[in-house]
Write a structure and sequence with these properties.
Elements lengths: L2 H13 L2 H13 L19 E2 L2 H12 L7 E9 L4 H14 L5 E6 L2 E6 L9 E3 L6 H12 L11 E9 L2 E9 L5 H19 L13 H28 L22 E7 L2 H14 L3 H17 L3 E8 L16 E8 L6 H16 L6 H8 L13 E7 L6 E3 L2 E5 L11 E8 L2 E9 L5 H20 L13 H12 L11 H11 L4 E5 L2 E4 H17 L7 E5 L4 H12 L3 E4 L6 H11 L3 E4 L42 E4 L4 H17 L16
Parallel strand pairs: 5-6, 11-14, 18-19, 18-20
Antiparallel strand pairs: 1-4, 2-7, 2-13, 3-4, 6-7, 8-15, 9-10, 12-13, 14-15, 16-17, 20-21
């Protein structure tokens, strides 16, 4: 098709109203003309407002949700060694910002929608900050990290921030940070290359000559929305819902720490060294099996996740550059899309079978790569949970790395700097990079979930798995060796040990007290997003135990406890044991007649419960609560707040009034218990053993 004709058709398609656009798309498809093969027309000037792309919409939502997070910053830092022409560098930045509208875009609320606002180009000024005293390499990287974590305001901008550090007259560091809403990883490489080319030209007094950009990012955003709305969304969504619809499993990797209620995005990075021999063997295997290196590495990662989690449905997020059009190749903007690649991993299957499954999945995903991840989430409607990302919790990112503008520019040597950003967008991410020297990798992990030792061990297991599949891809996945020789020997040594250390002597509450003395600040309980340390639980239990003793709880007293599942249930149980009594657990979910029978049959004299549960127990209750564990209780029958009012939910005591026959029966039961367990100062609690 003639280029001018294609441009005319594309422009007409994009500018039509929605209903006419749907009909136009249907007619084009009937004539075997797909908009995917048409150019993206530069039409943004014809629109009064500029809509966000779907990816930008999600970034806006995430920023609104947590504007204090730096998880979606896109930083780079360049070491500039040699004489630096700051004026030429400023000219290069000015040309870069003038060339790419995305670098001078902010985001505004317009009625009920968010729109892009492109600002006029303006000169970029750089001022070298001299560092005194001169930092060492570690301090320099910390300074770079602190700079890149400075927050952006998406409404005020600018969303491109620069800082130039002067270490010496011939030694500088250039730090550039963008927000993800206007750039992606591909964009960062384009930016560095154009900066270097611009500097080379301006430092020599030449004009910068770059081919004109056929479109701007706003044109892409308009094209994406209008194409998807015309019917392409439904076509691609049908494929993805067929693959991923139904249950949305959460990958449950064994973690070192409980999952927090809300992701903090705190993370760390472990760089891995893949030896050249292994990297070469993997590439040869890819050629032999008719797959790409990406497919082998993804399959190996999914096999590792299966072995760690025991789950079969393994879903991994995979970013795709989404730049399959010539118009977007040299454009700075947020194009990257995320796809969810799932595999049914079975331990008894050969790794080669999994590899072929991954190949077919990847090819299918490539044919349906334009559907924005945000649209998939909206369609599948996974259970929203701030503790983990939707649809997948781990990511695999494989890329091929070129020189990216590094090298000499006249007398100036340019080299990239790396550092740990201490952020993690997901539970776990495996990054692999193909380069001239072979293959490198890194694991980025959420420090809320994993410790450094666990991730280092996992990295070793993954590399052992790679060596095993290279040696024999026909091995069963469940039999692929993960352990190093030293780990295997340690396990064998442990299995041959017959001596078992004797458990520490003491009752449960005594063991708990000793642990609280040793590690008072260590977490003892996590429930409903709330953390209690050993010291906190022990102090609360001591406070309540004192109140119990003032109410007459001794070794002869059986105490009923009916509390909803919470930290306060544990406080109550410990307090009863500390006071010397025994407890009878009463489940508030039981029918009232069953609860009444248990209370009557056990002969308890005191019932520890909550105000909200009082109506489930057919026992009287007075109205004079004691305060702060030191007030009085109202006669024979009464309810009392057994601890300070700041401890919610409040505790209420019910003291039962019983006849002499029942009292005599209880005394006979206690005498029998004392004769049955003569060596114990405290009889064991019904339904709960006081020993660990």
């Amino acid at each position: 098709m003639d280029t001018a004709v294609a441009q005319r058709i594309a422009r007409r398609f994009i500018t039509l109203p929605l209903e006419k656009r749907r009909l136009y798309l249907q007619k084009m498809l009937e004539e075997n003309v797909s908009p995917a093969n048409l150019p993206i027309a530069p039409v943004s000037a014809e629109f009064d407002t500029l809509s966000l792309s779907f990816a930008q919409e999600r970034q806006w939502f995430l920023w609104q949700l947590d504007p204090e997070s730096a998880a979606y910053h896109m930083p780079t830092a360049l070491r500039l060694r040699g004489p630096l022409d700051i004026a030429a560098l400023e000219q290069s930045f000015t040309a870069l910002v003038a060339r790419h509208e995305s670098l001078r875009t902010t985001f505004q609320i317009h009625g009920e929608q968010v729109v892009q606002q492109v600002h006029a180009a303006a000169p970029v000024r750089l001022q070298a900050d001299t560092l005194e005293p001169l930092p060492d390499e570690t301090q320099l990287r910390r300074l770079i990290e602190a700079e890149t974590r400075q927050l952006f305001d998406l409404q005020q901008g600018p969303l491109l921030r620069t800082r130039l550090l002067r270490l010496a007259a011939d030694d500088h560091v250039l730090i550039v940070t963008l927000h993800h809403i206007v750039a992606d990883g591909w964009s960062m490489q384009v930016m560095v290359e154009e900066l270097v080319n611009g500097y080379a030209a301006f430092s020599q007094g030449r004009a910068l000559e770059l081919p004109a950009l056929p479109i701007q990012y706003a044109d892409y955003a308009i094209w994406q929305r209008h194409w998807m709305e015309a019917g392409e969304r439904e076509r691609q969504l049908e494929y993805w819902t067929a693959r991923l619809g139904g249950q949305q499993p959460v990958l449950e990797l064994p973690t070192d720490f409980p999952r927090p209620a809300v992701m903090s995005y705190r993370g760390a990075r472990l760089q891995l060294a893949i030896d050249a021999v292994l990297a070469g063997d993997l590439k040869h295997m890819a050629q032999r099996e008719g797959v790409s290196l990406f497919m082998i590495l993804l399959a190996s990662f999914q096999a590792l996740l299966h072995r760690y989690s025991g789950q079969n449905d393994i879903r991994v997020g995979v970013p795709t550059a989404n730049r399959n059009r010539v118009e977007t190749e040299r454009l700075i903007g947020f194009f990257v899309n995320t796809q969810v690649l799932d595999s049914d991993v079975q331990s008894e299957d050969a790794f080669g079978a999994l590899l072929q499954q991954v190949k077919q999945t990847a090819l299918g995903a490539q044919a349906h790569q334009e559907l924005p991840f945000e649209q998939l989430v909206e369609a599948l409607q996974p259970e929203r949970n701030l503790s983990h990302s939707p649809l997948f919790q781990v990511m695999f990112n494989h890329r091929t790395q070129g020189p990216a503008g590094e090298g000499p520019v006249g007398a100036l040597k340019v080299e990239g700097l790396s550092w740990d950003s201490h952020t993690a967008q997901f539970d776990l991410t495996l990054e692999t990079v193909e380069h001239g020297e072979g293959l490198s990798a890194a694991l980025i992990y959420a420090t809320d979930l994993f410790g450094a030792e666990t991730i280092a061990r996992m990295a070793g297991h993954w590399q052992n798995l790679l060596r095993a599949i290279v040696a024999d891809p026909a091995q069963r996945i469940g039999e692929l060796p993960l352990l190093h020789a030293a780990e295997r020997q340690a396990l064998l040594d442990d299995s041959q040990r017959t001596a078992v250390p004797a458990p520490e002597a003491g009752f449960v509450h005594q063991l708990f007290e000793r642990q609280a003395a040793r590690t008072p600040d260590a977490p003892a309980l996590v429930i409903d997003g709330e953390r209690w340390s050993y010291g906190q639980l022990n102090a609360r239990a001591n406070q309540l135990a004192g109140k119990l003793q003032s109410l007459g709880v001794t070794s002869d007293v059986l105490v009923g406890i009916a509390v909803e599942r919470s930290a306060h249930m544990l406080v109550g149980l410990l307090a009863i044991l500390k006071a010397g009594g025994a407890y009878l657990p009463l489940d508030p979910a039981f029918p009232q007649d069953r609860l009444a029978y248990m209370i009557e049959d056990s002969g308890i004299e005191l019932l520890l419960t909550q105000r909200s549960l009082l109506n489930q127990f057919s026992v009287p209750c007075g109205s004079e609560p004691a305060r702060d564990g030191g007030g009085s209780v109202n006669g024979d029958v009464g309810c009392a707040d057994a601890i300070a009012s700041r401890l919610a939910p409040r505790w209420y005591w019910t003291r039962r009034v019983t006849g002499s026959t029942a009292i005599a029966a209880r005394r006979r039961r206690r005498a029998w218990m004392r004769n049955t367990w003569p060596t114990r100062s405290t009889p064991p609690a019904p339904l709960a053993s006081p020993r660990a």
